[in-house]
């Protein structure tokens, strides 16, 4: 009887160890879409338009803010490992720029090494009433209520 319990316990521990080790494997996830190089070579600057680019390689991941803005096709590979923060290990951005008339002007490919870190700044909007807390404002408004209009 004891041998059966010991064997089950060892099997249970072995399964837990294998599951724990499996959780620590590195996983890579791909996000986005970049057209293959052979499709990009079919685009002719000075000839193709926005419509022909969309027909040939598909709708872009994003486009410029203005109507004349370029098309951007973006692909990223992200590494996930256990409890660690996900890390971008590869990124490709293909920019197709257009003239004001909507004709392809240029095709540029950027990699992760071409990226720039954009610093974010914290902006705080100051109020006119200074550092009065919420509770002080709440109690300060109690005397300002006019309940005479609520009666029938």
Keywords:
152 residues, alpha+beta, five-stranded antiparallel sheet, 5 strands, flat, Outer membrane protein assembly factor BamE
Per-chain topology:
Layout: H1 2-23, E1 27-32, H2 37-40, H3 50-57, E2 62-63, E3 71-80, E4 87-98, E5 104-111, H4 134-142
Antiparallel strand pairs: 1-3, 2-3, 3-4, 4-5
Word description of this protein:
The protein is α+β, with helices and mostly antiparallel strands and 152 residues long. The chain has a domain at 26-115. 28% of the residues lie in helices and 25% in strands. The chain has 4 helices and 5 strands. The protein has helices at residues 2-23, 37-40, 50-57, 134-142, and strands at 27-32, 62-63, 71-80, 87-98, 104-111. Strands 1, 2, 3, 4 and 5 form a 5-stranded antiparallel beta sheet that branches. The termini are far apart. InterPro entries: BamE-like, BamE_dom.
